Amino acid sequence: MNVWLVVIAAGAGSYLFRISMLVLAARVGLPTVLERAARFAVPTAFAALAATSLIGTVSTDLASVAPLAAVVVAALAVRHTGSPHAALLAGMPTLWVLSALLPT
Question: Which end of the chain is more exposed for a tag (fewer CB within 10 A), N or C?
Fold first, then answer.
């Protein structure tokens, strides 16, 4: 019983800590510098996910083709649309489809 209380308390604490920043930003507002920088959060997060998936897999086999292609598609989508959300909308399906089709 004590283990579950610790797990629930840790989960609730983590959730409250994360949501507190959103609530605070909604009430107080963000400085202009942070609002401009927030535009790049989604493409940066996608690039970080793709880069970590490439660590240890970059070689001559086809395992590294899917993440590399997804990064290229995401970058092109953001460049074409100007929307940071285009990185996820174009890059993630590319990663999923190529990962499913190409042998590992």
Answer: N
What one-character DSSP code corresponds to residue 63? G
- Distance (Å, whole) CA 87 – CA 104: 24
Q: Are 45 and 62 in contact, with CB atoms under 8 Å apart?
A: no
End-to-end CA distance of the chain: 43
Report if pTM > 0.85.
no
What is the C-alpha separation between 48 and 88, in angstroms, rounded? Answer: 12
Give yes or no for a contact between 91 and 73, defined as CB atoms under 8 angstroms apart. Answer: yes
- Contact call for residues 71 and 44 (beta carbons, < 8 A): no
Q: What is the dihedral of CA 26, 77, 49, 94, to 10 degrees?
A: 130
Residue 14 CA, chain-centre distance (Å), reads 19
